[in-house]
């Protein structure tokens, strides 16, 4: 790359670090560190939610799907995000905010002790934390692929560079640093993506070339569902993303908890849903058009990077690379904050009873140490990503499949319709769902991608709802939690008081 491109990347990293240092002054306790003290404006959390929802995998794994199959990548990968987040704006976002407001929780899993019991909370916490290590590792690997194309940097060095910079700013500043850097990243990414789209349209013959592009693409590239991406796969993916993007991905629940009211949380989710509907189409247009403009790319994962190098002027190449960094750093930093919340608020107090009454200073120190450990371990796994199915294999085959068993008890436990689903339903659905995943993934030869994603999801959903119906576990404490997060709003005349934790 030209020195101007390096200057753009360096300036980007410097700004992220300065934001982290500025945010450090806003963090006085664990509530500030994990939920921004409930003081974040809805537009900031909405953009943060959106930016935390996808990574550089868009420019690597998903760009490869766009190159090989066309517009189907938008249909099955991103429309479900818009739909799921839009539904969650009414169903889940306000409930997460009420949890923070009425029970003073700082982790999305803290309420599970009240709603179910301690073993259920621990099962979801440990398995979810392990899953997140692999999820974030896939994001580091995505960035490393891009760096290798742009600069020739080795995969290992690329993973270490991105991880260390992310580690520095998110460790000192907590959720405020995450949200503010994600806003800055959104602006940078916007300039880079619009520049790339403009150049591609120019290569196609101007805006009018967009109308003729669809007739010039290879056969099947305009089909909404094609290849392994079937209607069954899409249906399962929609349901998975409904749970994942409304709290199953813990860092996204934190965005709703960080707003000042349930109404603001709903607005935050609505903004994120609108962005998921529009912005991925802008990001992926170059990759969809690539078979027309660059028909002989040997490795489709390099599509976006090769187009940027070939078409963009000096300076914009570096800005585009920074924009690609932005998505991964946004998601990874927010995941690290969420994992730190779960470990320090849910796991450590259960494992180390003395940790339940730690001082504010010690709690913050523990949160930062856990953040460092999580990012470090995920970078180690990223270096060995090929052993786990590569970037897309981890994101779709592992994360999408395992997310259902972990998130179903957590999300449905917030809803009145499932208030009689108790610890037995939660733990059994979790265990059988994960068991179903390992059976079809490693016990069946030639299981399709659809089968791998559908089996654990359907198993967990049926078992959870079925046991709640056939073997209900009515509990006054669980009913109180569900009633508290379902309303009414404070000031309406009905007071809701925190309930004691179960032993």
Tell me the span between the first and last alpha carbons.
59 Å
Instruction: Output mean pLDDT.
Output: 82
- Which structural class fits the helix and strand makeup? mainly alpha
Q: How many extended strands?
A: 0
Number of H- or I-type helical stretches? 21
Following the backbone from N to C, one meets helices and strands in this order, namely HHHHHHHHHHHHHHHHHHHHH
Beta strand %: under 5%
Helix content: over 70%
Characterize the biggest β-sheet.
none
Shape: globular
Cα-based radius of gyration, to the nearest Å: 22 Å
Low-confidence stretches: 388-392, 490-503
Structural commentary:
- Pfam families: SSF.
- Keywords: Cell membrane, Ion transport, Membrane, Sodium, Sodium transport, Transmembrane, Transmembrane helix, Transport.
- Belongs to the sodium:solute symporter (SSF) (TC 2.A.21) family.
- The chain crosses the membrane at residues 6-22, 42-67, 73-93, 158-177, 273-294, 306-325, 366-385, 391-415, 427-444, 450-471.
- With 503 residues, this protein is an all-alpha fold.
- The chain is 75% helix and 0% strand.
- It contains 21 helices and no strands.
- The protein starts with a helix and ends in a 17-residue tail after the last helix.
In short:
With 503 residues, the chain is mainly alpha-helical. Helix content is 75%, strand content 0%.
Q: Could you list some keywords that capture this structure?
A:
503 residues, mainly alpha, globular
């Amino acid at each position: 790359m030209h020195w101007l491109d390096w200057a753009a990347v360096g300036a980007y990293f410097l700004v992220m670090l300065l934001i982290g240092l500025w945010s450090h002054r806003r963090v006085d306790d664990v509530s500030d560190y994990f939920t921004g003290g409930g003081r974040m404006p809805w537009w900031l959390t909405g953009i943060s939610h959106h930016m935390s929802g996808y990574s550089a995998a868009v420019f690597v794994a998903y760009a490869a799907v766009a190159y090989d199959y066309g517009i189907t990548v938008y249909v099955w990968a991103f429309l479900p995000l818009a739909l799921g987040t839009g539904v969650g704006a009414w169903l889940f976002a306000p409930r997460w905010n009420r949890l923070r407001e009425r029970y003073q929780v700082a982790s999305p899993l803290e309420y599970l002790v009240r709603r179910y019991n301690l073993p259920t909370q621990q099962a979801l916490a440990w398995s979810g934390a392990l899953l997140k290590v692999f999820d974030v590792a896939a994001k580091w690997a995505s960035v490393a692929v891009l760096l290798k194309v742009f600069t020739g940097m080795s995969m290992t060095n690329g993973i270490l560079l991105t991880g260390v910079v992310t580690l520095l700013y998110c460790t000192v500043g907590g959720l405020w640093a995450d949200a503010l850097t994600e806003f800055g990243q959104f602006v940078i990414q916007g300039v880079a993506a619009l520049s790339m789209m403009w150049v591609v349209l120019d290569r196609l013959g101007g805006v009018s070339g967009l109308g003729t592009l669809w007739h010039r693409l290879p056969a099947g590239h305009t089909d909404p569902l094609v290849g392994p991406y079937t209607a069954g796969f899409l249906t399962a993916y929609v349901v998975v993303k409904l749970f994942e993007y409304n709290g199953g991905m813990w860092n996204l629940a934190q965005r709703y908890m960080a707003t000042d009211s349930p109404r603001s949380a709903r607005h935050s989710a609505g903004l994120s849903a609108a962005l998921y509907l529009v912005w991925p189409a802008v990001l992926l247009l170059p990759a969809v058009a690539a078979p027309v403009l660059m028909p002989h790319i040997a490795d489709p994962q390099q599509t976006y990077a090769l187009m940027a190098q070939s078409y963009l002027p000096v300076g914009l190449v570096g800005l585009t690379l920074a924009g690609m960094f932005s998505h991964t750093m946004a998601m990874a930093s927010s995941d690290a904050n969420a994992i730190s919340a779960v470990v320090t608020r849910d796991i450590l107090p259960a494992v180390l009873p003395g940790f339940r009454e730690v001082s504010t200073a010690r709690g913050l120190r523990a949160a930062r140490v856990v953040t460092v450990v999580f990012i470090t371990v995920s970078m180690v796994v990223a270096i060995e990503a090929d052993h786990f199915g590569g970037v897309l294999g981890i994101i779709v085959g592992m994360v999408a499949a395992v997310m259902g068993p972990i998130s179903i008890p957590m999300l449905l436990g917030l809803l009145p319709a499932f208030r009689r689903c108790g610890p037995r339903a939660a733990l059994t659905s979790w265990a059988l769902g994960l068991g179903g995943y390992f059976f079809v993934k490693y016990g069946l030869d030639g299981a399709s991608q659809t089968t791998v994603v559908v089996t654990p999801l359907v198993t967990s959903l049926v078992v959870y709802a079925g046991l709640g119906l056939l073997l209900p576990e009515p509990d006054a404490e669980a009913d109180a939690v569900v009633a508290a997060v379902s309303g009414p709003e404070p000031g309406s005349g009905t007071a809701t008081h925190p309930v004691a934790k179960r032993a």
